[in-house]
Structures are given as structure tokens and as C-alpha cells.
Specification:
InterPro entries: Biofilm_reg_signaling, GGDEF_dom, Nucleotide_cyclase, PAS, PAS-assoc_C, PAS-like_dom_sf, PAS_fold, Rev_trsase/Diguanyl_cyclase. The chain has about 550 residues and is α+β, with helices and mostly antiparallel strands. About 35% of the residues lie in helices and about 30% in strands. The longest helix is centred in the N-terminal third of the chain and has 23 residues.
Length: about 550
């Protein structure tokens, strides 16, 4: 039954040859891979793991893997084959979080020299993900603390005009508790005539967005009212649509805060603040946080041009255009330049104002770099197939379409080939799904060891893989595909009862004219693959019209 899958060697097979074949397949994988003996000694570690832990090539074998692990992410060690997270020591004294998938190698022909089964560990770097999660939690906590400790009353309304939150200062100032106003509109909280005046200002904001300041009476818990200056601004929901209104109350009876008090508030702000003249663009004030983000002393920033800190002139033009149209910019993602030439991402807010008769731009910059890095790290994780580490179907199609567009633009050749593991179901049925997963990982690694660096390899699903070869004709792709097929056929796959071999069938299609699409090319390669299957498998077939 297994003849069509490959030759099976029993427990008495050549252990050294089996191990060498297994190790070579793992050498090309982008994820860290190591094999450990029952006592924890590292028997093999691939180049990716050496790079991940900062060790010199081939220096990990012989070390005790347990001395590399500093912390477990909480999963039950006996819960293999589940993935768990743990912290590994780097050679330079640092540490890296990894997701570890461990499984026993039950092939008796490559057992540990001291007896017992070897353990295969696949280790994927998740440090960026861990740091991103921690940074996001810290940001949310900081925002909550900042909201609650602001010395001015602040309230938040949703898109339906209902109060959804307020800070402690609001409760102390008005005497109205959160419980009394949450999920209620202004008409349920205050006199209808007063509520109507506030609602009219809200409607203006809904239409024009931006920011709005006005004077109006506000209610108190004892039934009295007091004139106050209110500043309101809209905020967006996660889809970019109108989410609601944030309002700040300034009590007119207390008068304007002194210059010394304003200076103290600004210096304690975790957000960078700058003021620049609108007539010549020169900066006339910055707080300490702004100077820290730029990397200069405050006195060295004063007098410089605000435009000098934009990294991208196109982004600066967008800010100017938005200010011209609406008078404000709210939470725009802008990249700024530090004094040392490095860059950082910010959430940038600007409002136009008049201070002591001078027209100015008031700007707030919030360092957004960690959050943006987190988003990029999560996008990278989402682009990979979790089993093999190569591109998943969605990411492969995006990258392949860009190569197809380039081939059309420069009138260059391009080929696609689809690879399928022959009788893969028999492998799963005969050796188990864990061995089948190992076989797919070895197929991915075997393909990467033959393909060029700029060829694109993806997993379409199951045992089917797809490759785009930029700049290659069908005949040139046939040569590459034959090398891949022969290499995979020679690989010895470890199984529970000994090693075995597998074969693959490959269909090829070249780019066909300036109107060809990626989907059509893959479909033609599939037709060629079906022909290879019908003709006996373990072969390469190039698409021809009429298939």
C-alpha cells in the first residue's frame, strides 16, 4: 500500500542518513528548530535558531536546552503538541519570547544515543507581539489615568447624544454622579431650554466636525446653574465615522488660569505641545515633552520653523490643506524627524487660535511609534502559514499580483507552478497527522532550499503549494520544478516505524499576454497538475492549450 508513497526503512535503517536528511530540510526553515535528547541536550539546532538566540553557527548542539529557558508562558509542559509560550536566554544576556510547539520523534532509527525518543521543538519569535500587547495595555492605562486626573471637568457623549462617561473633576464640579447621567441625553439631565442650546452646538459639530467653543449655563445637582465656557470636539469610531463628542468645562466664575498655572499643567502633560505663528511658521513655545520627542533642549527648539520637523513634505501639505478647509486637524498619523535624523510616528492634532492678538497654530503630538510597530508586527504574523512558516494564501496572492503587474509593465516573463504532495491522505492515515505535519514542513523547507530568494512560495491549503517565479519562462520554470521534485523525492521523512519517502506532482503555466491574470495562470497550472496526476504522478507537466 505504501509503495506509491515512498520506500519505508525499518528500525534497522541508516540512522545517520535519516538524521542528516531531516536536519537539511529544517536548515532552510525561517522558524527556529531544534531537537533535544530526553535529558535536554541539544542534538541539532537550525541556523534560524542560532540567529534568534545570538549564538555562533553550530554552537548550540551539546548545550542543555533547559539552561536556555528562563520562563514558561503558563502552558502545561505535558500538554504537547499544544503550543506554549516561553522565555529563552540570548547569548548576549538578553531574552526573547517564543511560541514553542514540541512533539516526540518516534522513529526508532534516529533515537537518542542514550535511548529514548528525541523531541522536535519549533520555536517562533513572538517578542514583538508580547511587547506590543504590553505597550497597548500601558497606553490604555495611561489614557484612563490621564482622563481621571485632569484638573478640569470632562464629559463624553456618543453618536446618539447620550452621556457615556465623565471624569472625577466633572462629578466634583457639578455634583452630578456618573450614575445619574450615563445613558441619558441633555434633555434628561437639565432644563429643556438649556438642553436645546447645548444640543444646537452639538448639531453644528456633527455637520462641520473640528472643534467648537461657546459660553452657556451648565446645571448642578442642587438645581442651580452657572455660566461656563465649553470646548467640544468630535471623535471618530474604529471605522473612521462620527463616534461622539468630548466636552471640557471651564468655570468663568473662577477666571482664567494664571500663566504660572498653565505652565505647570503643560509641563506635566505626557503629550508634546507646541505653539507656532501662522504668519511665518516659527515656533514660539514648546513644552518639555515636545522637546524630548524632537531630541533638543526647549530653548533650542524655540525660533525654529515648524516645517523643519516633518519627515514627509506630502504629509505636511495634507496638514496645511486640512487647516485651510476646516481650521483643525485631529489625530492624523504624521511622521516627524528627530534632531539626530531618525524618525517617529505621531498622532498629530492642530487647532488654529489667537493668543494676545497673534494668530497661532496649537499642536499636540502623541508618540505613536510603538503602537504602529505593534500593528506592523501583527500584520506580519497574519501573513504567515502557522504550520510551515511560508506565506499563507492571502499574502501570497497580494505579493504575486504585484509581481504580475511588474511583469506586465516591463513586458518580462513570469511563471507559476502548483505543487501537490502525492497520496498525502495515505501518509496521514498510515503515520498519523503529526507525521503528516512534519512532512509538509519538510516540503516547505525543501522548496525554499531550491528556489531563488525573490521567488514567492505560498501554501494554498492542505498539501498544495504554489510558486511564482518572476522573470522565468515556462522552460526555465520546468528546470527549477524538476530540481524541486527530485530534491523532495530524495528526502527521508521520519515516521513512527522508520523513514519513508514522498513524491510530488507539479503543473506549470507561463504568463499569457498583457491581459492575463494571476487567477487564470494558477488555473492553467492546476490543469497541468491534473495531467501530471493522470499520467502517474511524480512528474512535472507544462500547460498546453487543450488541457
Amino acid at each position: 500500500m505504501l509503495d506509491s508513497v515512498g520506500t519505508t526503512t525499518g528500525p534497522r535503517g541508516d540512522a545517520g542518513e535519516t538524521r542528516d536528511a531531516l536536519w537539511r530540510a529544517f536548515d532552510a526553515l525561517p522558524a527556529g528548530v531544534c531537537v533535544t535528547a530526553p535529558d535536554g541536550t541539544v542534538v541539532y539546532a537550525n541556523p534560524a535558531l542560532h540567529r534568534l538566540l545570538g549564538h555562533a553557527p553550530a554552537s548550540l548542539p551539546g548545550l542543555d536546552f533547559n539552561t536556555l529557558a528562563t520562563q514558561d508562558g503558563g502552558a502545561d509542559p505535558a500538554a504537547a503538541p499544544e503550543v506554549r509560550e516561553r522565555l529563552l536566554r540570548r547569548h548576549d544576556g538578553g531574552a526573547v519570547w517564543v511560541a514553542e510547539a514540541a512533539s516526540a520523534i518516534e522513529d526508532s532509527s534516529i533515537a537518542s544515543p542514550g535511548g529514548g525518543a528525541l523531541t522536535l521543538r519549533v520555536l517562533t519569535d513572538v517578542s514583538h507581539h508580547r511587547r506590543a500587547e504590553a505597550a497597548l495595555r500601558d497606553q490604555l492605562l495611561m489614557k484612563e489615568v490621564l482622563f481621571e486626573t485632569l484638573p478640569v471637568p470632562v464629559f463624553v457623549k456618543n453618536a446618539e447624544g447620550e452621556y457615556v462617561d465623565c471624569n472625577d473633576s466633572f462629578e466634583r464640579y457639578t455634583g452630578l454622579s456618573r450614575r445619574k447621567i450615563i445613558q441619558k441625553t441633555a434633555f434628561a439631565v437639565m432644563d429643556p431650554r438649556m438642553a436645546k442650546a447645548h444640543e444646537e452646538q452639538d448639531r453644528e459639530l456633527v455637520v462641520n466636525w473640528g472643534q467648537r467653543s461657546y459660553e452657556e449655563a451648565v446645571p448642578f445637582a442642587d438645581g442651580s446653574t452657572r455660566m461656563a465656557s465649553l470646548t467640544k470636539a468630535v471623535y471618530c469610531d474604529s471605522t473612521g465615522n462620527f463616534g461622539g463628542i468630548v466636552g471640557v468645562i471651564h468655570d468663568l466664575s473662577e477666571g482664567l488660569p494664571s500663566e504660572e498655572r498653565l505652565q505647570t499643567i503643560l509641563e506635566q502633560s505626557p503629550i508634546g505641545v507646541s505653539v507656532s505663528r501662522r504668519d511665518n511658521g516659527r515656533i514660539i513655545f514648546v513644552n518639555t515633552r515636545f522637546a524630548e520627542l524632537i531630541g533638543l533642549k526647549r530653548e533650542d527648539v524655540i525660533g525654529r520653523q515648524a516645517r523643519d520637523y516633518y519627515l514627509d513634505s506630502n504629509q505636511r501639505e495634507r496638514v496645511i490643506e486640512r487647516l485651510r478647509l476646516s481650521g483643525s486637524v485631529v489625530n492624523m498619523e504624521i511622521q516627524f524627524r528627530r534632531a539626530d535624523g531618525s524618525s517617529f510616528w505621531t498622532l498629530f492634532t492642530v487647532n488654529q487660535a489667537v493668543i494676545q492678538g497673534v494668530q497661532v497654530n496649537l499642536a499636540w503630538i502623541y508618540d505613536y511609534t510603538e503602537r504602529r510597530n505593534m500593528e506592523e508586527a501583527l500584520r506580519d504574523m497574519a501573513s504567515r502559514d502557522p504550520l510551515t512558516g511560508i506565506y499563507n494564501r492571502r499574502s501570497f496572492m497580494e505579493l504575486a499580483r504585484s509581481q504580475l503587474a511588474r511583469a506586465h509593465r516591463f513586458q518580462e516573463p513570469l511563471s507559476v507552478f502548483v505543487l501537490d504532495v502525492d497520496h498525502f491522505k495515505r501518509i496521514n492515515d498510515s503515520y498519523g497527522h503529526a507525521t503528516g505535519d512534519d512532512a509538509l514542513r519538510m516540503v516547505a523547507g525543501g522548496c525554499q532550499s531550491i528556489l531563488r530568494e525573490y521567488d514567492i512560495l505560498g501554501r494554498l491549503g492542505g498539501e498544495e503549494f504554489v510558486v511564482v517565479l518572476p522573470g522565468a519562462t515556462a522552460d526555465e520554470s520546468r528546470v527549477v520544478a524538476e530540481r524541486v521534485r527530485r530534491h523532495l523525492a530524495r528526502m527521508a521523512i521520519p515516521g513512527p516505524e522508520g523513514r519513508f519517502h514522498l513524491t510530488t506532482s507539479i503543473g506549470i503555466s507561463a504568463l499569457d499576454g498583457s491581459s492575463d491574470t494571476l487567477e487564470k495562470a494558477i488555473h492553467r497550472a492546476d490543469l497541468a497538475l491534473y495531467r501530471a496526476k493522470r499520467e502517474g504522478r511524480n512528474r512535472v507537466v507544462v500547460f498546453e492549450p487543450g488541457m
